Task: structure prediction
Amino acid sequence: MDDEPSRAGPAELPARGPVGLSTESPFADRSPAPDQPASDNGSHEYDPAVTSDGITDDERLRRIEAVTDATLSRLDVADLFDELLDRVRDLLHVDTAAILLLDVHARQLVATAAKGLEEEVRQGFRVSVGRGFAGRIALARQPVIIEDVTPDRVVNPILLETGVRSLLGVPVFAHGELAGVLHVGTLTLRRFTPDEVRLLELVADRVGQASRARANSLDHNAALALQRSLLPTELPDVPGLEMAARYVPGHVSGVGGDWYDVFTLPSGWVGVVIGDVSGHGLQSAVVMGRIRSALRAYALVCDDPAEALSLLDRKVVHFETGSLTTALYAMISPDGATIRVSVAGHPCPVLVAPDRPAALLAAHVDLPLGTGRRPPARRTAVLNFPPGAVLVCYTDGLVERRGELIDAGLARLRAAVPLAPADQVCAAVMAALDTERPTDDIAMLAIRRVSD
Result:
């Protein structure tokens, strides 16, 4: 571990507010204070009260404009990091610049972008918070300078191999939380000035904003990948049944908590699931994945849909605190003639048959999953599924519209379900219910019993 630098002030600065560009010039004069000497090991934490050197107002303005340039916002995060590092090298006349972002779970800083130290990124260099030059910056949450780099003061061998002699680093914050470290270095001895420290802090603010966007993008991509992996790429081929499905995200992120599932059971019965986890984004997608997997497991040991949903409710209450889920679990007999169904706060499916018009399935609607209350015993309805009949399961995004009662949407749905092959049913319903401008996620599953 590197020697700890002497401290010009408290170990940590007061918590900062949300990251943003201050209306006060970052090079404004501060109250004068004595110059801060380097410690015995040649490093010190920067005191923001130190007076600035004689940089001209024009140069200050040029530096501010270089890092607050609005055109930078048009770049993607990787290109923005590279451009900022190029600009800071030019403005500060330094040889190296690097951004290390915080891996929150590992409590390590990870080399993410670099100029002059590209090998850091290629090797995926990591350092724990509190260890090494960057780690000390992250621990103290304030700037640190090493005026003479020696092997006992840094832990990153790439810095030594590159020949870096002096280092300046500042913490990066995003929404008031530590997000990483930004540091620059020179191949000759250098004493960094207060104005240079303030400029690097301004660049770090811009990095913080971009790192937040990067984290959101990573979450979004992870949620999309997770949700796509959990929705069936194709439905099972079951003799006597014809199936088709649709999924439309209603949130700008393209990720929600709605799902559907169809699987065959060892008994020959077919399990049919459709559900809706509250919320949007990665967290909802993760919860949805866990609930989907749990219900599949309970389906293997339960011949009664109500029993499976009762076990699932206990799981949601205990392990998914704060999550509210509606779900429908149905089982179709091996001959296709019988449906067993249990409903947990979910809209009832529509059934249309050759001898009767479309109507909501006559099933009991029990409490949603995760309410935390001890519910009455859940119930299973047993219904006939005649040849040629079509069962349509869906989530509430298909029928709910702002400013109108859900009964109106249900009436539109009943009128839109034709006696037709399953894929034609999906196409007709989606067209009739204006699903191209959804305000909520939509999942729909159509199952048709093929005529004998």
